[in-house]
Structure formats: C-alpha cells, structure tokens
Amino acid sequence: MSADPLLTVDGVNAGYGETKVLHDLSLEIHEGEIVSLVGRNGAGKTTTLRTIMGIIQPTAGTVGYRGEDVSEVDATETVQRGISFVPEERRIFPELTVMENLEIAHIGGGDDADAMSIEEALGMFENLQDRTENHGSSLSGGEQQMLSIARALVGGADVILLDEPTEGLAPYIVQDVMDIIEELNDRGITVLLVEQNVHVGLALADRNYVINQGEIVWEGTSAELEADEEILDTYLGVTA
Ligand SMILES: Nc1ncnc2c1ncn2[C@@H]1O[C@H](COP(=O)(O)OP(=O)(O)OP(=O)(O)O)[C@@H](O)[C@H]1O
Ligand SMILES: [Mg+2]
C-alpha cells in the first residue's frame, strides 16, 4: 500500500463521561480508499466517527491526519481541514432551499480552493438539479441523503465519513446512494463508510474493519470478509 496513511486512529479510548465506549481502537485509511466500518447496534461505529471529527475527544490514543496529531482539533476546524461528516440524521436545513443548503455548506467549508463547485456537485446529483428551489423538508429521505452528501462535497471534503447512508431507504435508492459513493471516490475523495448493512460495505469497500463492543475484532478485504462465515455470523448477524 502506498506511502503513509491519510487518516489514522491509534489506540483510542473514548466515550461519554463515565461511559467508556471505544477501547484501544486503531484503524487507518489511505488516500483514495473506501474503508468500511461494520458492526452491530451499539458497537461504537458512530462514536468512532465522532472521535475522528473532534465532536468528542479521546481519553487515550491519538487521531492523526496528514501526519499531524489532530486529537485535540474541534469539529469546525476538522471540517475546514477537509474531513466531513454526514451523520445518520442527515443534517440539512429543512426550511432552506436545496440551493441555500449548498451555498451555506460552500461558505462553511472555509477558504478551500479545491472545494467542489455547487454546479459540479449538482451535476453529480441529477435528482437535486431540478429541485434547487425546493425546501429541504420537501425532499424524500433519499434526496435528503444526497443533499447531505452534496453539502459535504461543496464544503471541500477530501475525506468523507458516512454514517449509515443507506439506512431506511428503499432498495432502488440504496443503489443510487451506492453509485454516488463510487462516483465521489472516483473523483479522488477518500471514504470511511459506516454500515449495519454489511452488503453495502462489501460491495463498495476496499477494506473492512469489524467493530464489536468498542474494539476492532477483524480487518480485511471484502473478498476475505465475504468468505469468513464465522465473522459474518458472530459479529454481523449475517448467515452466509
Ligand atoms: N451521547 C451518549 N451518551 C452516552 N452514551 C452514549 C451516547 N451515544 C452513544 N452512547 C452509547 O455508546 C455505545 C456505542 O454507541 P454508538 O452510537 O457509537 O454505536 P453504533 O455502532 O453507532 O450503533 P448504531 O448501529 O445503533 O448506530 C452504545 O452503548 C450507546 O448506548
Ligand atoms: Mg450509529
């Protein structure tokens, strides 16, 4: 694998006050990869993403980005450095139009010369193109997910952290979201994909990490994971 990793989580402990969630968790992501983090309900997937973003800070270990220790960097600064989080609850502004949602994200990304233009992003999301004057609240779940991803792109994301982007979506929309993830990756964006739907992770990811009770219990390629019935069954509840 090429050079140094772009993003590293190294021996991290993190949680919420007295609740310790992540235990000595390590993972790394290289530039241009799609890496999936899969595991059951409550395994610590979202907590891992929050720790990378600086929404919560590790009590031990480090988060590194481009060779720098960013463990203490807060979420606003993390976004400006090029890491973007698309949370499960799809944070868009329902009372603003699609265009306004994108404009705010574009400004919020800071002075980033590499940020994708709103025009280019709309070119990727056909179903948003015709709805730029519609309010966020009038979009379907799938369209809100697309808008949420588009906001990350126009905010200048180099790395995008996706928290269960296909959750609750109809199967044909799941495929649209998967296509978008592949396309943004083709454009050079590095992806950390959290999924409970292991099939989505397997289809898209170069490498996968399996998390259980706050610990990484397995890592490997999608082909290796697909072939490992015991891991699938024990940690992911998938019967092959
Ligand atoms: N704000 C919080 N305060 C206290 N405990 C929390 C908080 N958020 C999550 N937890 C706990 O941390 C653990 C891990 O939660 P986390 O949300 O990271 O899991 P997850 O893998 O994302 O699960 P899911 O698949 O349900 O989204 C759970 O036991 C959860 O109850
Ligand atoms: Mg979660």
Overview of the structural elements:
- Helices cover 37% and strands 26% of the residues.
- By secondary structure, it is an alpha/beta fold.
- The chain has a single domain (7-236), classed as P-loop containing nucleotide triphosphate hydrolases (Rossmann fold).
- The protein is globular.
- It binds adenosine-5'-triphosphate and magnesium ion (MG).
- Adenosine-5'-triphosphate (ATP) is lined by residues 16, 19, 21, 39, 41-47, 196.
Q: Number of folding domains?
A: 1
Number of helices, where a helix is a run of at least 4 consecutive DSSP H or I residues:
10
Biggest sheet, spatial arrangement of strands: 6-7-8-3-9-10
Order of helices and strands: EEEHEEHEHHHHEHEHEEHH
Straight-line distance between termini: 30 Å
Record keyword descriptors for this entry.
binds magnesium ion, Rossmann fold, binds adenosine-5'-triphosphate, 10 strands, four-stranded antiparallel sheet
Write the layout of secondary structure elements.
Layout (H helix, E strand, L loop, with lengths): L6 E10 L2 E11 L4 E5 L6 H9 L6 E6 L2 E2 L5 H6 L2 E4 L11 H11 L9 H7 L1 H4 L11 H14 L4 E5 L7 H16 L3 E6 L2 H7 L2 E6 L2 E7 H6 L1 H8 L4
Parallel strand pairs: 3-8, 3-9, 6-7, 7-8
Antiparallel strand pairs: 1-2, 1-4, 4-5, 9-10
The chain binds adenosine-5'-triphosphate and magnesium ion.
